[in-house]
Amino acid sequence: MSLMALREQLNVLVNSMFLEGLLDQQFRQLQMLQDASSPGFVAEVITLFCEDSERMLTELTKLLDQAVVDYQKVDAYVHQLKGSSSRCLSALNMVKHQYYSLRSKFDTMLQLEQRIQAYGSEQQN
């Protein structure tokens, strides 16, 4: 696949994520911080986000599975993850579903970014 086709595929994916509400203007700002001196910047931030989110979702699930739920801890994790305080399992499941959808698309985005970088490296050689 050509570099142009890979970039187009990445743009289509990112645009669809915006349309679905999975990405917002903060992501555009993040993209603007990436340049030739840091070509993997966005991928690095996405990876860190996914790792942190996985950890928080695991902790939330553990907390909500306990017989006596420590809602202060749940509240702290939910604030970190979603920016609002929700204290029910259905809200957690909704966040998990949205996260896994986002994670899947981020994985595709990272693969496309890697292929684009590899293609660019091959063209320089």
UniProtKB/TrEMBL annotation:
Gene3D superfamilies: HPT domain
Pfam family, one: Hpt
SUPFAM superfamilies on file: Histidine-containing phosphotransfer domain, HPT domain
Alphabetical keyword list: Cytokinin signaling pathway, Two-component regulatory system
Subcellular location: Cytoplasm, Cytosol; Nucleus
Cellular component annotations (GO), alphabetically ordered: cytosol; nucleus
Organism superkingdom: Eukaryota
InterPro entries xref list: AHP1-5/YPD1, HPT_dom_sf, Sig_transdc_His_kin_Hpt_dom
GO BP term (any one): phosphorelay signal transduction system
Residues in HPt domain copies: 44-86
Gene Ontology MF term list: histidine phosphotransfer kinase activity; protein histidine kinase binding
Domains (record comment): Histidine-containing phosphotransfer domain (HPt) contains an active histidine that mediates the phosphotransfer.
Function: Functions as a two-component phosphorelay mediators between cytokinin sensor histidine kinases and response regulators (B-type ARRs). Plays an important role in propagating cytokinin signal transduction.
Protein name: Histidine-containing phosphotransfer protein
Protein source organism: Musa acuminata subsp. malaccensis (Wild banana)
